[in-house]
Amino acid sequence: MAALQRKFDDTEARLSGLTLPEGGWSAATRRDALSRVRSMGLPHARDEYWKYTKPATLVQPEAPAAALFAGEETPIFDDVDRLKVVFVDGVFDPEASDALSMSGITIERLADSNADIHWARDLYGKLELAGQSPVERPLAALNTAFATDGVLIHATAKAEKPVNLIYIHNSETSDAILHHCIKLDEGAELTVLENGPAAARFNKVMEVDVADKATFHHIRTQGRDHERRAATNIFGRLGRESIFKSFTLTANGVLTRNECVLELTGDDAVAHVAGACMGDGDFHHDDTVFITHDAVNCESRQVFKKVLRNGATGVFQGKILVKKGAQKTDGYQISQSLLLDEDSQFLAKPELEIYADDVACSHGSTSGAIDEEALFYLRSRGVPQGHAEDLLTLAFLAEAVLEIEDQDLQDAVNGRIEAWLMRRRTA
Amino acid sequence: MLEIKNLHVKLEEEDKQILKGVDLTIEAGKVHAIMGPNGSGKSTLSYVLSGRNGYEVTEGEATLLGQDILELDPEERAAAGLFLAFQYPVEIPGVGNMTFLRTAVNAQRKARGEEEMSSTEFLKVVREKAKELEIGADMLKRPVNVGFSGGEKKRNEILQMAMLEPKLCILDETDSGLDVDAMKLVSDGVNKLRAPDRGFLVITHYQRLLDHITPDVVHIMYDGRIVKTGGPELALEVEKNGYADIMAESA
């Protein structure tokens, strides 16, 4: 009882430091979300869904400080022709951003859209609300209530180029809450790129409504600052023959929890979620995925790979739920870790729950060290040990990285992985 | 070129002596063959020379071109000019064959203080050599040895050998798993590499590989020692009479 009381006390302590934005089309949704947070309570160490990841620092009123990376770094998507939207510690930076206009989409800021009627009213907080069952995601409800900004993108056709959300981290104690809504009309196509450490603590929600025959690609990199913390949620709804593909590269970060909740509601939809992460030392990374099949002949893939060293921890909680009537479902889930030493650990909880009788679902989870046979083979050809280990590590991550369809983006991500490994190469 | 003196080797994990005093000298330009029954220590010799983990040298020495190789890491031995064609080439999913080859070639060049090969030059050379071994573009693009047939794997070993241009080539039962045509391709590949400044050590169970790769010297290994040395006729004798006579002589 005492623990439960503390959960609600901690929740109120967090809420007391936040101000609910008033007015506009989102006001009622925000108030509803706030009452959801109050009734659920924010995550607590005793919660089953937070068994492997301690939520305390994501919940406490003040964001723990996170030192800024001192060196030079070229942002990953700088060579890509894209529309830039820059947030510095969660605050929109108009100087660094491009004009919010591009053919195929309309794009505006959440903080700018205070009219009483807006298309986003039917999306904002709606997929988040649907995603609260059967498992509660209180940090996402908190986000819906208190988000200070974000982008609202309505794609009506094929977007001219990708939208790049860039998150710059400048203040050691920043605590950012951003909420994006992305709506793709029938047949529309859009790629969203995200990169940057964002803030000392970052709470982000992205709701994506993919209509029939629409295609959404999402490539994200989170990294750099070792002490940063993030709790992110993607909520997606997929219509008939639609495609949703998301890839995340994570390097460094004392605590990252990436949740992805997708519902395939139209027949013949395809959903792929992939992640590659690399942790060294004080690193905790949690991928929590929940994919619901509620239509016929849909395909879903979850591919998560983690490279862990010096006591780093990786977590994977992945579920495929196949509802009654979702026949011909093709579900695949793989989560693997490469443990580079004895101190690192990987905690995996793969789940399948199937109520249809004509489906093909497979899942697998493994932890292992570098393959000694392969390592000797490479070394016997003259490749130095450190370099050989890096080649094998890249090869291990490849299945996840190959989920990125665009070759240039794939190369860019591989370049980041190589650089990260190179900085740690011993011999 | 390669000098092995009184080499004693045991397994690290168990207290089992495998090599019990091997003496062997391979001169530049020569092809030496080692034959012997199963368990005589032939493959162990190839692994110890190439630096695989799990073996402990308890006595003796091995030098390549005057350099003590037993103290070197596997990659340093490779850069010094030693190459082992594996009996069972390893599959490496996720690493492209071409990337692997170029990484290896340039790593060795770098270790020797030579200039790295440019991509264009590398491509040109690799295509040429691959063609001779009937290795198509597809095999070069695929991950190292993944999904290769037995013959393709062995041809891929010879391609690596051709690209790396080692001083001493050890072929560990390269004939195992090869049909007649593949045997010819592989042997032609090896014969093309025969050169006055390169030595070969061919380990095999059977005489048939030696029909294609004619050795200068044949050694018979038994119970961790070289018990008999002769010319190519020794291999024919083994083919005809088996190892029994030789084993009886040395027992």
Main attributes of the structure:
heterodimer, A: 427 residues, alpha/beta, ten-stranded mixed sheet, nine-stranded mixed sheet, 8 helices, 21% helix, B: 251 residues, Rossmann fold, six-stranded mixed sheet, four-stranded antiparallel sheet, 12 strands
Can you tell me about this structure?
The complex is a heterodimer of chains A (427) and B (251). Chain A has one domain. Chain A has a 10-stranded mixed beta sheet, covered by helices on one side. A 9-stranded mixed beta sheet of chain A has the order 3-4-6-8-10-12-14-16-18. Chain A has helices at 2-16, 27-40, 56-59, 126-130, 138-146, 372-380, 385-401, 407-423, and strands at 83-88, 91-92, 105-109, 151-155, 163-168, 175-184, 189-195, 201-210, 215-222, 229-238, 243-251, 255-264, 270-280, 284-293, 299-309, 313-322, 330-339, 345-354, 360-368. Chain A has 8 helices and 19 strands. Chain B has one domain (2-250): P-loop containing nucleotide triphosphate hydrolases (Rossmann fold, 3-Layer(aba) Sandwich), CATH 3.40.50.300. In chain B, 40% of the residues lie in helices and 28% in strands. Chain B has 10 helices and 12 strands. Chain B has helices at residues 42-50, 74-79, 97-111, 119-132, 137-141, 150-164, 180-193, 208-212, 232-241, 244-250, and strands spanning 2-11, 17-26, 31-35, 55-64, 67-68, 82-85, 92-96, 143-144, 168-172, 199-203, 217-222, 225-230. In chain B, the strands form 3 sheets. Chain B has a 6-stranded mixed beta sheet, with helices on both faces. In chain B, strands 2-1-4-5 form a 4-stranded antiparallel beta sheet. Chain B has a two-stranded antiparallel ribbon with strand order 7-8. In chain B, helix 6 (150-164) runs parallel beside helix 7 (180-193). The longest helix of chain B is centred in the middle third of the chain and has 15 residues, at 97-111. The model of chain B has no long low-confidence stretch (mean pLDDT 92). Chain A binds chain B through residues 371-374, 376-385, 387-388, 391-392, 394-396, 398-399, and chain B through 50-53, 73-75, 77-79, 83-84, 86, 89-95, 99-100, 103-105, 107-108, 111, 143, 160, 164.
